Amino acid sequence: MYPENRLEYITNKITTSKYVSVEKLGQALNVSGETIRRDLKLLEEKGILKRTHGGAYLEGSTQSDVSIQVRKNILLANKEQIAVLCSRFVQPDDTVFLDSSTTSFEIAKNITQMPITVITHSLPIISYLSNYRNIRLMALGGVLDHVNMCFTGKIALESMLDLYARRGFVSCRTVSMRYGVMDSNEQIGQIRSAALKNCNKRYLIADHTKFGNTSMHKIAGLDSYDVIVTDKRLSDKWMEYFEQCEIPVHYPEGVTYSKTPLDPDNTDESL
User: Fold this and answer.
1) Would you say residue 64 has pLDDT above 70?
2) Weakest-pLDDT range from 10-14, 28-32, 258-262
3) pLDDT band at 269 (very low <50, low <70, confident <90, very high)
4) I need a labelling partner for 222 at 20 to 30 A (CA). Which of 39, 171, 252, 256 fits?
């Protein structure tokens, strides 16, 4: 495995688990402990982690959050692929909810040419889309979360519960067959859960590293989603699971287990 691929693997692993050990990383990547320690030193210099005896931990992990400045660069090419797929679902005059994820920010960059309404609590998305007069922008208020650069709290949640969208693009921290779709941040998870209740077409946007893990707070069951959009074909176990659930999975190479047209739309046209 090339050094850049090792660094990406370690970054993804520590983002999910908050701690990695030199021994387990060496076994997983089939390299020496010395190689892993050099990789961890490079990532520490980039501000992604903090080294400790025998491993490394994610700085600030006691808050169960990863700075958006770190997240925006993790698997960026993969997020861009997901965003391109999602943009194909959006139609002129749609009302679209975009959550505060960095993947949603990539989606925002791909839908600027259409006359649409966008509902969001993401400050980066609000700032970016404010430059496009063809987009009607509805920003949820609330308290600014400086780590995730989004608005949360009672005001944001109540605002979301009063709004409805034709399409909702909702991310997460992890996806579990047993526990459903989960988040590490309770308040962001509440906004995502509320959005799912008020969107006619609900898309789970999650890269392949999020499947098969768990977090502290549940957003919703997998049956709350109509479509899964990810960056690559998932494992056979996951694909069989979604086939049984009759939820189509879209990824760059195609769509699998879809018993319906590419994007069946039985939504309320007034939205």
Assistant:
1) no
2) 258-262
3) very low
4) 252
**pLDDT score of 100:** 96
Q: Kindly write down the DSSP assignment for every residue of 209-222, as one continuous string.
A: GGBT---SEEEE-G
- pLDDT for the residue numbered 260: 43
Cα(166)–Cα(189) distance, integer angstroms: 20
Which residue shows structure tokens 């046209």? 269
Q: State the Cα torsion 221-225-227-233 to the nearest 10°.
A: -10
**Other C-beta atoms lying within 10 Å of the C-beta of residue 77:** 8
Q: Which of 9-18, 85-94, 102-111 has the lowest mean pLDDT?
A: 9-18
Burial (CB count within 10 angstroms: exposed 0-12, middle 13-18, buried 19+), residue 198: middle
Take residue 123 and report the two structure tokens written for it.
């400050």
List CB contacts of 210: < 8 A, sequence separation 6 or more: 16, 172, 173, 174, 175
